Amino acid sequence: MRVHLSAVYRLVVPFMLVALAMWARGFAPSLDHEASILLENLPYLLCAICCGLGWMFNRLRLALAALASTGLYLLIKLHLQVSLSESPAGELYLFAGLALAVGVAYLLVVRDYGLLTLRSLLMVIIFAGLLGLCYGAAEWIGATDAAWSARFAAPTHDDYILSHAVSWLIAGAALLAIFLVLARDDETEGALFGALLAGFCALAFLHLEQISVVMACAGLLSVGWGLIRGSHAMAYRDDLTSLPGRRALSERLQSLGRHYAIAMLDVDHFKKFNDTHGHEVGDEVLKLVASRIRQVGGGGTAYRYGGEEFCVVFPRKSAEECAEVLDQARERIANYEMSIRDQGRRPVKAKEGTRRRGATRLSAASVYVTVSAGIAERDDKLQTPEEVMAAADKQLYRAKRGGRNRVAWPGSRK
């Protein structure tokens, strides 16, 4: 499994929102009456906004997280403003802790299937069922012997009200969230981590004044941030390869300085490859190429340009400086042995496959993919990014005419 270290920032934003909410809590008591009323009702407004965004972008998990965060705020506001030693309040507090850990863990492991589908309805039913089980478990623990009550309900410290058992459950859900953020490189898991962290602070430090409202706002802002970032990814990231797409490239080209290079890459014989092995295998080839050029060095950023074509932008680099790192990426792609799963779509005769070059060089059970690349840099003749890209395209076709599986730039001999 590849760890996306770039996804670490998705954990930093929720931490900052919760820390900012904790800092802002100190100013809440000094608010006047009208501002206090506005603050108390702010979570409802944020919840409505998050649910609306979830509906627009088909993000059921985050919509459920927004509703659950608001539900936790209501539970604290209406039922937990009394001594937790009283039986109803103590059981509801335990239910809140269990539901927070179990509910977020469930939303982390399931996938979004849209809103108006049978799978989404099943997701909602299971989520509600898990909350019901947590409520039943809280009642059962409250009615059982003192040992169970001490383990799950007794506060750890005067300044930290959650019990050891519930704390460990929430810690487990947090570790799962961190793992999935790094593994999936997706906005949803980071937003759910923020909702979990805010809910944990609201319960663990329940004795602090105005803690529930500021943490509800922090959790809902984290969910809203995930929804907005997710919509941005939908518009700017290619779904198949997870690389930034054409729109992201267009914006990047507008912000380049006066010294840069651009490379255009193309999968060799990709149409013939699709005709031979099918579009599903062709998609796997594009994912393979994307994963290799994403790791290109030299400060380059890879983009999906369209079809089987990719673009890499190198700020503050010359074409010759970029050639070496691109050639290394090309070599990594060419040396990767890709297994063909659908044997029925392979050529009937082995000789037919071995005669094909580039992306269709076959062995008994595998295929080797190759790419060609062309590089151009900005100079006195090529003043705009569009002109540099056109020159890189010419170098790409030069590499193809020269035999494919190679990198060409104005100073190269091949």
Outline the structure in words.
- InterPro entries: Diguanylate_Cyclase, GGDEF_dom, Nucleotide_cyclase, Rev_trsase/Diguanyl_cyclase.
- One of its GO terms (biological process) is cell adhesion involved in single-species biofilm formation.
- Residues 319-346 form a coiled coil.
- There is one protein chain.
- By secondary structure, this protein is of the alpha+beta class.
- The protein folds into two domains: 5-236, no CATH class; 246-408, Alpha-Beta Plaits.
- 61% of the residues lie in helices and 9% in strands.
- It contains 15 helices and eight strands.
- It has helices at residues 9-24, 33-56, 60-79, 87-109, 118-143, 146-152, 164-184, 187-204, 211-236, 246-254, 270-277, 279-293, 319-334, 350-354, 385-401; strands spanning 260-267, 301-306, 309-315, 337-339, 361-362, 366-368, 371-377, 407-408.
- A five-stranded mixed beta sheet has the order 2-3-1-7-8, sandwiched between helices. It has a three-stranded antiparallel beta sheet with strand order 4-6-5.
- Strand 5 (361-362) and strand 6 (366-368) form a beta hairpin.
- Helix 7 (164-184) packs antiparallel against helix 8 (187-204) and helix 11 (270-277) packs across helix 12.
- The radius of gyration is 27 Å and the shape is elongated.
- The two termini are 37 Å apart.
